[in-house]
UniProtKB/TrEMBL annotation:
InterPro entries documented for this protein: G_SEPTIN_dom, P-loop_NTPase, Septin, Septin3
PANTHER family attached to this UniProt entry: SEPTIN
GO biological process, one term: cell division
Annotated organism of origin: Takifugu rubripes
Entry's transmembrane regions: none
Location relative to the cell: Cytoplasm, Cytoskeleton
Protein name: Septin
Listed GO MF terms: GTP binding
Gene Ontology annotations for the cellular component aspect, listed alphabetically: cytoskeleton
Key words, A-Z: Cell cycle, Cell division, Cytoplasm, Cytoskeleton, GTP-binding, Nucleotide-binding
Domain spans labelled Septin-type G: 74-346
Coiled coil, from the record: none
Family indicated by similarity: Belongs to the TRAFAC class TrmE-Era-EngA-EngB-Septin-like GTPase superfamily. Septin GTPase family.
Length: 364
């Protein structure tokens, strides 16, 4: 059973998501070329290329502008699933992550905070626009996960949903008259919320990440980390990393997917901080004359974006600023390709339903 809503959100221009300067007006190619110098010789323009100057400036780097303009026109999809038991602040953290009310709880006026008897996946989609870039964001919530006395196989509905999205995409690819742009509903990232117990991973945490880690990129976080002291937090993170290694659990970013030494250095720094100890809030407070996102307590204000208070900034940088496209690439090139290979190797796949004609092997 799915609940689906669709809204459009325009972010404040001052909000920085990608850490890149605002795109300026498009300059005609003719005007751009006139400003270029040939072979480092000022005053010479492209209009006068002849003879040996044919091996001078070509303008291949303009393809980057072409790709950027096309992406800005078409936009892109990003699908994220949040998993964890009730009361860990999943909705609040997603709102804080995108600085908008994008969670199901925030967008449903008739939302009732009651514990579901079974795990039901519910999703809500938004079109987020910032500095001319459009992104269709889909947030999938998993109410009922881990809330029962007997939580056996509570991960099955989530695994089923992820595989169903791969199956839909595969069917679209196999169509004879397939769409020019296939809708991408595949799950690109799973944020898994761990309760701040200060002990070790629970059985449900281990079993879930073992199974889901094979089909989707998992980013584990310690929810409501402000309930732990700095020392407790570091010890808890170290125990979790030990449990992940001893149980063979693969979380994003995986070492085997590092493409070059520079990327390996960046990802090693991320892996050193996983799981991220995060705090979420959508309320602002005055700190030294500046408005900051934070949780106010009688001991002071916990600043969400201050790395000395929590590691929310590291999570935001990973999911949005530095690795968003990589999450999509890993989903398409690794997880989806693995599913696709398995399905194409199965003998009982009925491709005729997708409009693909298959030949029946001749009997010898």
């Amino acid at each position: 059973m799915f609940m689906f809503q669709f809204t459009k959100i325009t972010l404040d221009k001052s909000t920085e998501t990608c850490g890149k300067p605002e795109a300026g007006p498009t300059i005609p190619m003719e005007d751009t070329q006139k400003d270029k110098c040939i072979m480092g010789q000022p005053g010479r323009q492209l209009n006068y290329i002849h003879g040996s100057d044919l091996f001078g400036y070509v303008g291949i780097e303009a393809v980057l502008d072409q790709m950027r303009n096309k992406t800005m026109k078409v936009g892109f999809d990003f699908n994220i699933i949040v998993v964890g038991q009730s009361g860990l602040g999943k909705s609040t953290l997603v709102n804080t992550l995108f600085k908008s009310k994008v969670s199901r709880k925030s967008c449903s006026p008739e939302y009732e905070a009651k514990i579901s008897k079974t795990v039901k996946l519910q999703k809500i989609s938004h079109v987020i626009e910032e500095k001319g870039v459009k992104m269709k964001l889909t947030v999938i919530d998993t109410p009922g996960f881990g809330d029962q006395i007997n939580n056996d196989n509570c991960w099955e509905p989530i695994i089923k949903y992820v595989n169903e999205q791969y199956e839909k995409y595969l069917r679209e690819e196999l169509n004879v008259n397939r769409k020019r742009r296939i809708p991408d509903n595949r799950v690109h990232c799973c944020i898994y919320f761990l309760p701040a117990t200060g002990h070790r991973l629970r059985s449900i945490d281990i079993e879930f990440m073992k199974r889901l880690g094979r089909i989707v990129s998992i980013v584990p976080v310690i929810a409501k980390a402000d309930t732990l002291t700095i020392e407790e937090r570091q010890e808890f993170k170290e125990r979790i990393r030990q449990d992940l290694a001893s149980n063979g659990i693969s979380v994003y970013p995986q070492k085997e997917y590092d493409e070059d030494p520079q990327e390996r250095i960046i990802n090693d720094r991320i892996r050193e901080n996983i799981p991220f100890a995060v705090v979420g809030t959508d309320k602002e407070h005055q700190v030294n004359g500046n408005k900051v996102l934070g949780r106010k307590t009688k001991w002071g204000i916990i600043e969400v974006e201050n790395v000395e208070h929590c590691e929310f900034a590291y999570l935001r940088d990973l999911v949005i600023r530095s690795h968003l496209q990589d999450l999509k690439d890993v989903t398409h090139n690794i997880h989806y390709e693995t599913y696709r290979m398995q399905r194409l190797n199965e003998s009982n796949v009925n491709f005729t339903e997708a409009g693909v004609m298959t030949k029946t092997p001749k009997k010898k």
